[in-house]
Amino acid sequence: MTRRTTKRRKLTVPPAARRAAAATGALLCAMAVAALAVTDGTVGPGPAVADPGDGARAVPVAAAETGLVCPQPAELEQPDVGDDQFSATPVETSTSLVAVALDGADPALTTLDGAETGDLTGPLEVGDAAAVRTGQVPDARLLRVTPGGATYATGTVASVTTDGDLRGMVAGPCAEPAVEHWLVGGSTAVGSSGRLVLQNPGRTPATVALEAWGASGPVALGGQALVVVPPGEQVVTMLEAVAPDQSRLALHVTAEGGRVGAYVQHHRIDGLLPAGADLVVGGGAPAATTAVSGVVSTGEAVDDPHAPRLDLLAPGDRSGTARLAVLGADGPVRLRGGEEVALEPGKITTLPLGGLPEGAYTVVVDADVPVVAGAAVDRRGTPARDAVVDGDPYDRAWLPGQAVPSDGVVADGVVAVPQDASYELALAGVPGERDPERIDDVEGSTEVGLRGIGPDGAEAWSQTVEVPTGQTVTLDGADLGDPGETVAVVAEQPADQPGVVWSVTLSDAGAPSLFSVLNPAAPLASGDEVRVRRVDAVG
Asked: What is the pLDDT of residues 131-159, one digit of tens each?
């Protein structure tokens, strides 16, 4: 066979001709771009068109598919010590996932790289209100939802270890990946361990930059400050290896090239006693006002090491002052010596919350510099019958800060509840006036509509709750619906009433001293409209 060879001649264009062609191309490009213009530069429904004759028309934009990244099952294994009596996890860790998509969504559960999987033990249940998936999972999952008419989608992964040094409930939400995460909580002090998990459900590598702060200021991470997360994979970093001996921690995760999920799996022991395990998940970005819901006091003394605590960080370069409003069941509670807190830039400030009367609280922080916040709450357990050391074990929950609703903005949301867990709601009406001298005189209330979703996808119950402004109201899930028959709780509130922040405390049904606290997931982004009109222009 004869191969034909074709010679290509190089065409030389004079410089003057190249300049003329470039100018002509630029003019044509400008004319093409000017042919279509967005009327007001905004995407969204916006105001109605005042003059329908101006040629503007609304172009519908469908909502994109949403992917929620779910935490992987807790990994609590420690090196074998050769004696089962001293094993860190003498019992198996049980992990369950519940995923709920409400109001017409089309959910699918895949691996991080998008591969379909059928390894959940429970089937897909579709009811009038939601589609529900439940079961056991071996590793991280991605909940994919095409919204359509859907309003909410969420999931919760809960791992429970009932005995051993690392006993605890490790629970966290399936959350949308993002380019930025703020994680407040955890520790790398002696007896503590933290696993930073970065998950990339996208199709391109993500380069993640890490910043860390401790009680003494910024923590130098050196060459570990940049992490590349391949597409469809996750990368785990042991924090004690990159930020050792930190009694307090706050992390800022920033991604380029894609959006990622981020959380810290933290566990600790106090000598030989279990001291808790949980996830530190992302909270609100730095803001002048933030809130922490789900703080519970059992009446601990001020100096009790197991009393609740609040961590605050001003990550900028300016010092400031934070003012705290502690909202209890009967209204605002004075926190002696803690109503105003001095903030040093780049240093975590810890405020013990001991000395509070027994009950549930919501802490609202107002600062003159942007801050992030988180809290830690301990719950005492009962020693095992064959315990080799004296003392009570504890479990710990890390509570993320959340945004405070502003005028016209409400905190509607949903929390998924594992079927083998009991739950309690904490709802607080946030007063607009939080000055310590006037907060006791706040008035008003907010009607919050609650509804529960059953495992069959049908609405299991509904209830309206009056939340007085300045107070924290708690509701036992057993009083709302039959135990085990609620897999999601939705809370909705009107925009013309004082804002409400809320959270859900999960407890293991078999071991109530094991618990975790979850913030609600916001509604899904819905389809929108773009207003456009044709503009004919030359030159």
From this structure: 998 988 888 999 988 766 568 999 999 99
Residue 489: both structure tokens together? 């709780």
Beta-bridged to residue 490, according to DSSP, are: 414, 451
CA–CA gap between residue 500 and residue 471 (Å, rounded): 10
pLDDT of amino acid 32: 37
The single residue listed with the structure tokens 């240093």 is 347
CB atoms within 10 A of CB 434: 20
Q: Residue 172 forms beta bridges with which residues?
A: 157
Residue showing tokens 């959340």: 402
Residue 517's DSSP bridge partners are 505
Scored b (16 or more CB within 10 A) or e, 342-367 reads ebebbbbbebbbbbbeebbbbbbbbb
Question: pTM higher than 0.90 for the full model?
Answer: no
Q: Is 84 helix (H, G, I), strand (E, B) or coil?
A: helix
Rounded CA separation 122/478 (Å)? 23
DSSP, collapsed to helix, strand or coil, labels residue 439 as helix
What letter would DSSP give residue 345? B
**Count of CB atoms situated within 10 Å of the CB of 25:** 10
CB contact burial 258-288 (16+ within 10 A = b; e otherwise) = bbbbbbbbbbbbbeebbbbbbbbbbbbbbbe
Cα atoms in the Cβ-side hemisphere of radius 13 Å centred on 309: 21
For residue 16, what is the DSSP state? Answer: H
Residue 85, pLDDT > 80, answer: no
- Amino acid 142: pLDDT: 92
Return all residues near 342 (Cβ < 8 A) that are at least 6 apart: 319, 321, 349
Collapse the DSSP code of 29 into the 3-class scheme (helix H, G, I; strand E, B; otherwise coil) and give the result. Answer: helix
R_g of the chain computed on alpha carbons: 27
Which strands sit side by side in the sheet containing 66-70, from one edge to the other? 66-70, 141-146, 106-110
Parallel, antiparallel, or unpaired: how do β-strands 309-313 and 180-184 relate?
unpaired
171 or 105, greater pLDDT: 171
Q: What is the pLDDT of residues 451-480, one digit of tens each?
A: 999 999 999 999 999 999 999 999 999 999
Query: At 366, is the pLDDT very low, low, confident or very high (cuts 50, 70, 90)?
Result: very high
